[in-house]
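Weekly modeling sync, notes
Attendees: AB, CL, MP (scribe)

Item 1: holo prediction request
CL wants a bound-state model with adenosine-3'-5'-diphosphate before deciding which constructs to order. AB pointed out that an apo prediction alone won't tell us much about the pocket. Agreed to run with the ligand included and paste results into these notes for async review.

Input as submitted:
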Amino acid sequence: MGCTRMTVSLIKWSLKRWFMIFCCLGLTSMTWMLYKLSSPSSRGHLDFVAQYTNPRLAVNRAPSTLPSGHKIDIDDNQPQPTVENKALLIHRSSRTYSSVTIALLYSRLKFDTVRYKGSSKAMFTKNSLQGQYSIIIIEDLLIYIDMRNEDKSLISEYCKVYKVGIIFFTLPQPRMNSIDYDFPLSFSSVERTVDKYIVNETEFADIARHGVGHDMNHIKDWVQFHPSKATHRTLAYGQTRDSHGIFSLVVLDLGLEDGVVKLFFGQKHSLWIHKILFLDALSFLTNGAMKMSKTRLIQIDIDDIFLGSSTGGTKMKAVDALELKNAQSVWREHYVPGFNFYLGFNGKSYKAGLEEEADGDVELIKQAGHFHWFDHTWAHVQAHKYNNLSKLVEQMELSKAFAKEHNITVSRTYSVAPHHSGVYPVHEQLYKAWRKVWGIQVTSTEEYPHLNPPWFLRGYAHLDIKVLPRQVCGLYTKNLNYSSYPKGPEALERNILGGALFDTVLYNYVNVYMTHQQNYGHDRLAIYTFNKLFELFTYATTLKLEGAPPEKLAEDYFGRYPEELQPLWLNPCDDPRHMEIWNEEKSCTKLPSLLVVGPQKTGSTALYTFLKLHPDIAANRDSPTSYEELQFFGSPNYNKGLDWYMQFFTDDSLINFEKSATYFDKDSAAKQMSSLLPKARIIVILLDPIARALSWYHHQRAHNNTAAISLTFSELVRGKNTSKSAQSLLSQMMKPGFYYDHIQRLRKYYSDSQIMYIDGEKLKSDPVRVMSDVQDFINVDTKIDYGNLLRFDKEKGFYCIVISNTKSKCLGSGKGRSKYYADVDSETKEHLERVFAVPNSYLKRLLIKLGVPIPSWIEP
Ligand code: A3P
């Protein structure tokens, strides 16, 4: 395809398109009439529609199987077994991401996978299928054919009891023709070219547009089904020009014979039309529980609008600028109402390059009012390279002045950083400069949490700026011409027709695409690509593509996924791309490799103090607000970001550690810790939870907590006072003591070899021994004898640090007060023993399993 062809006006393309649609519809409706006349199911179809749209069907399950007489008979008094809104995918492939898993992941649908490993291997037990799934997907029909009969029966039984349907994809192969199948449906593998693939069923097709013919000439093999009038419905069929006529390619088995509704696809999932139909199948078979909304918000950014190669010859010309405007208006009119190109400018490069390129820049400015503009920094600087805010502010002010001089209206709410630098990993100065100069509220990046795989891209918010995931569309600065597209033009075509770019529109509600100005000169690859993509989705689906301002995109995105507003800080050193855009002065080796997580009142300060005595181990600098504890994970401080956390660690030649006793029982802490510090070692201290509760109570009394002052320990524990402050205090006394639950959450994120459990009583009575074990656990190069550093202080009643032969330094007066506590009365004690009995027994069992010595305070 040459440049001239690519520059044909989009209006012409559009006229051609409407003409083609008109012809196709004519052909399709003729075919449809012929088909309806010849189809054995022409009457059954109406019955089917009436029955399958019955509103009494229980939500979240397959349409009820039809007893004979084709009547749905649901007894409203009979409780329907419930299922989770989750899919079960049975697959054969060892690939991590198959086409189906990508669809489920992108759509954020919950699912489990079971891998078929041959007919001799059992896949299920009765217990493994108990209402967890609202749909079963089998990636290849032959898996089911070859599966053990016991597994087939379990699946079938499950589907019948829970009224769950099955989706089968097929991989056509000769073996299919000789299979002794046990379905009430026959099928065969055929070598056949489909000239028109037509989605037939109006009630089934929701996202897929029914009645439109698609050329599938490139697929040579299909599985053809031979549906029977009474029990099957053809949902999509193929049409050939030759004498074979029409054949069924997607069939719904109503389950009249075996009680299970099944949907069969006569090809694999990755066929683009099947990707669309699969979404409809999920929605249909789960009675809408897995239905996707039809709106897709689209924004296309063009970064570096004036930036070109230093030798020239890469930038847009004046005619390209006009064609850009033209494309925008055609797309708005025909495919994407409200669509806008967002142009990112670097004023410094304005008019740089060859004469015709400078003319292109001038034309863009002339047409500026037709586009939306955002600041891409004056000199295209990478924010992470500048540690001072003023440099970034200065760059943004220059952009502002440029915009004023050229009369460009610039978005004050949206911006994109060159190279994604400073957005993620977060460079605080960029966020602050954005807020200060422009008041930016929304940006986008392809870096969170990682560039690949794209179906895991997510958004987050930081310092009041919402960061949207940004899609890569397969067009980079170097992609100028169709014929020289990497791996050939076919690769670009595949990208559009069912490939990675196609997936973004199909599965993402909000798409912000990254393109570059080079993609709009030369062959205008971006216009070609998106035009074809939009045309395909308009023709083949009922999706509503729409443009909207970035703030609306962000509102929609985070409205759907509010949990994403909270970011997850990852270790930049785990991703080479992140390292490229991380400030040189920041170093992962500074991050702590050891975390003492508490819980509070178990001796965590003593352990912290003793660890600091080791010459190779360093603690964080004190925080001005929470002193030695940074309380980063699981706490509001987490929102201050990685730069805030890292400032407390200064020496990366030592083993840095941090002690925050709040980490142990905070729900989100373990996940956040393991995301940033996956290799860290964790120390947990376990003290009798009753002693811990008492210590916390006295600690709060010492801090004048009103509930602690006005109520006795027994009154609180026995729930005598239901005031908010009493309940809150009681929760702090009790909750951390349910050790088993908190440890299990920790174990989800850290391996057992990374966690050390210290008996809090031993830490009091024999810290020298404990510190020896701790050094072994951390694997320090130089092991020291704490016997020379610690000595029991009779007056304090605890071990203290040796200062001289006669002097020692003990922990402050707020630590080690227990000898002054009044005894807990026996009734309260018994009550607490009963409360902690079960969790303690679980803990004991776990410690035995882990080979950890059982603390003396746990009942034998
Ligand atoms: P009490 O003050 O109730 O006796 P944390 O530092 O986690 O808040 O724990 C405080 C508890 O540490 C103290 O509770 C005390 O029992 C215990 N502890 C253990 N070793 C200690 C030591 N060497 N000096 C002081 N307290 C110690």
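Recorded for review: Residues 10-38 form the longest helix (29 residues).
Action items: CL to compare against the apo run; MP to circulate these notes.
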